[in-house]
């Protein structure tokens, strides 16, 4: 009898392992929601990403909680708001890594790999515990010299590593691979060629005139308070977007960088199909933050407007292919919990995010109506802020400047008006201030002090 029970137990474990999907995670740098074909951009060519959206789930209201590369990537890894993980550069607190989603995937029996940009450091022993393969690939320069003397773009190098990893896997054990692109981040040190693109996209957009940003009217920039006008938003705008010639050149190359990522994604999908993994693989595509790209007279990200916080998010499940769009608020801190859920693992209690899987599968669950947005750095020309992004209202406090914003997305979806001093919004302002304190204070001490 005991041998029968043992056999049943082993069979159950084998079935459980077979049911776990492979997971492939694409994380892009500096790409906002509307810079894909499937999200409405009038020119960009992203056919492979669009196909994932057509057969998967496109989240129409996906956001990051802190709009800057290093913090957002730490938040994805830990499942936590910045206020909780406390990462401001250097090494992430090891106790936050203990409950990270890669640790959970390893416990679930996954072979794991990480290729590309980090923008953070982790304890070396923890890194080995999280990943079977770990290869960091940075920019500066984007094009790397190969052993044969040729140059290859970091986007293609990262895809090569991922494909090599996939080709070594078998159907007996699930795998996870994370592709962390430096593109479409600018090469800040090169003022003439900000957006070096891979050869795969060199032929695109050559004879096209790039459309101006929707919010390009200079009056929009001039309506901003002085601390916004004199910030890095304006410095980098002058690097990239402030003349028609610069704008056309740089936007054309920015789109080429994005299309190069689409081409790399297509190569990875082909590898999955060739190994017969595609129909048992979950693919996640998102970005670490949005990007102003000239809107409002701004460059960069960092601050509280939609162009900075809102990102693309697509989740494709090869086992249940269906095209759908969801309007619920999804966050970067949900991604770890979501991938763990697909692996059959619970969300660690330390995480601030929640699994998106129930929403994708049509379950009726209570869901957030708002989230905490925050930014803190020691950079003198980037303003620090904290606020609440509600389904209708956006409240942002810049305590060091003694300044508040209140936007009504229903009446003013482009956030061109600040209702903070409008008497009609007095009670809404009080409520949003209260919600900020109720949401932020339990997570940890504030980074920002009042003026």
Automatic annotation (TrEMBL):
N-terminal signal peptide: 1-17
Residues covered by the Sulfatase N-terminal domain: 21-345
InterPro entries: Alkaline_phosphatase_core_sf (IPR017850), Sulfatase (IPR050738), Sulfatase_N (IPR000917)
Record keywords, A-Z: Hydrolase, Signal
Source domain of life: Bacteria
GO molecular function, one term: arylsulfatase activity
Family designation: Belongs to the sulfatase family.
PANTHER family: ARYLSULFATASE FAMILY MEMBER, ENDO-4-O-SULFATASE
Protein name as annotated: Mucin-desulfating sulfatase (N-acetylglucosamine-6-sulfatase)
């Amino acid at each position: 009898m005991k041998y029968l029970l043992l056999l049943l137990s082993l069979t159950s474990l084998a079935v459980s392992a077979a049911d776990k999907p492979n997971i492939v995670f694409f994380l892009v740098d500096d790409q906002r929601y509307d810079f894909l074909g499937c999200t409405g951009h009038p020119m960009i060519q992203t056919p492979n990403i669009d196909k994932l959206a057509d057969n998967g789930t496109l989240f129409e209201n996906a956001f990051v909680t802190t709009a800057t590369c290093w913090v957002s990537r730490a938040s994805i890894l830990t499942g936590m708001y910045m206020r909780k993980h406390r990462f401001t550069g250097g090494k992430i607190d090891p106790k936050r890594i203990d409950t990270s989603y890669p640790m959970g995937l390893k416990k679930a029996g996954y072979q794991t790999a990480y290729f590309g940009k980090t923008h953070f450091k982790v304890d070396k022993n923890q890194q080995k515990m999280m990943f079977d393969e770990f290869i960091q690939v940075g920019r500066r320069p984007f094009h790397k010299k190969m052993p044969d003397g040729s140059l290859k773009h970091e986007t293609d190098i990262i895809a090569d590593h991922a494909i090599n990893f996939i080709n070594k896997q078998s159907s007996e054990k699930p795998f996870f691979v994370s592709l962390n692109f430096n593109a479409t981040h600018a090469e800040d040190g090169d003022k003439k060629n900000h957006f070096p693109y891979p050869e795969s996209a060199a032929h695109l957009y050559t004879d096209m005139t790039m459309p101006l940003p929707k919010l390009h009217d200079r009056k929009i920039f001039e309506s901003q308070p002085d601390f916004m006008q004199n910030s890095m938003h304006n410095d980098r705008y002058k690097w990239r977007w402030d003349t028609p010639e610069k704008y056309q050149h740089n936007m054309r190359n920015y789109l080429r960088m994005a299309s190069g990522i689409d081409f790399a994604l297509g190569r990875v999908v082909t590898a999955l199909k060739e190994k017969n993994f595609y129909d048992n693989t979950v693919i996640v595509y998102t970005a670490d933050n949005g990007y102003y790209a000239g809107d409002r007279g701004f460059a960069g990200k960092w601050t509280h407007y939609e162009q900075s916080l809102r990102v693309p998010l697509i989740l494709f499940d090869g086992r249940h292919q269906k095209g759908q769009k969801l309007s619920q608020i999804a966050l970067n801190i949900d991604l770890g919990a979501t991938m763990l859920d697909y692996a059959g693992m619970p969300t660690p209690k330390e995480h601030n995010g929640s699994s998106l899987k129930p929403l994708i599968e049509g379950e009726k669950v209570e869901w957030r109506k708002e989230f905490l947005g925050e930014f803190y750095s020691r950079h003198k020309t980037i303003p620090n802020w904290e606020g609440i992004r509600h389904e209708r209202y956006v409240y942002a406090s810049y305590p060091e400047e003694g300044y508040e914003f209140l936007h009504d997305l229903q009446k003013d979806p482009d956030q061109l008006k600040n209702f903070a001093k409008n008497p009609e919004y007095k009670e809404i302002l009080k409520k949003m201030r209260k919600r900020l304190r109720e949401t932020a204070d339990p997570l940890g001490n504030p980074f920002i002090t009042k003026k």
